[in-house]
Amino acid sequence: MKAIIVDDEFLAREELKYFIQNYSKIDIVAEFTDGIEVLKFIQNNDVDIIFLDINIPSLDGVLLAKSISKFTKKPNIVFITAYKEHAVEAFEVEAFDYILKPYSESRIISMLKKLENTYNNKKDNSHINFISNKINLWKNEKIIVVDINDIYYCVAQERITYVFTKDEKYSVNLCISDFYEKLPNDIFFKCHRSYIVNINKIKEIIPWFNNTYNLKLQDIDYEVPVSRSNVKVFKQLMNI
Hints:
- This protein is α/β, with parallel strands linked by helices.
- It has two domains: 2-128, Response regulator (Rossmann fold); 134-238, CATH 2.40.50.1020.
- The protein has seven helices and 15 strands.
- The protein has helices at 10-23, 35-42, 61-68, 87-92, 105-130, 176-181, 231-238, and strands at residues 2-6, 27-32, 49-52, 76-81, 97-100, 134-139, 142-147, 153-157, 160-164, 169-172, 188-192, 195-198, 202-207, 213-217, 223-226.
- The protein has a five-stranded parallel beta sheet, with helices on both faces. A five-stranded antiparallel beta sheet has the order 10-9-8-12-11. The chain has a three-stranded antiparallel beta sheet with strand order 13-14-15, with no helix packed on it.
- Helix 1 packs across helix 5 and helix 2 (35-42) packs parallel to helix 3 (61-68).
- The radius of gyration is 20 Å and the shape is globular.
- The model is unreliable at 124-131 (pLDDT under 50).
- Pfam families: LytTR (PF04397), Response_reg (PF00072).
- It comes from Clostridium sartagoforme.
């Protein structure tokens, strides 16, 4: 796992590095004291974990985490802070953990183990699900094995996600966010709270209201919306 530390206090960074290096196999690839520099870095580098202080220059940790939460590939965020009052905001951006300074050794070690277990489980599940690029979906009370490359788009309806290929409609009993986690993020993009699109199936990008887009897909008469909150990441993804 690759991690970065974002904290403008030198001693706090050194203490956290000590725990990470001695109690985990996490690789610290960079350290930052400034929020804007972090955004620039993670746009061009893969990072699995961000250990993030809240009180940092240029862009505070909460705003930085909100920006990162819109990325296609989202690293786990562990807030390391002296401020209790931001815990609710951390929950809203789905932070992995929220640890208060001064550090508790047992608390830090427990968090590091949990991070490694989560990462290893995700790797194992990814290998099982996509070793042959197949995924199991439901149709007419039967389980159908579908090639993920044949999926054009997905639509949420409460706790069920409907999955569309060129000619067929399937379902899976997962909310769309959970289903999205099972899909390879180099092929699929969650362009809207209710939609996932296969970026390889996009034929046209049509400008729409409020600086959003509609996506016309190959071979089928259907357009998938890109929500305003996802436009920035979509433009980065498509080099617009």
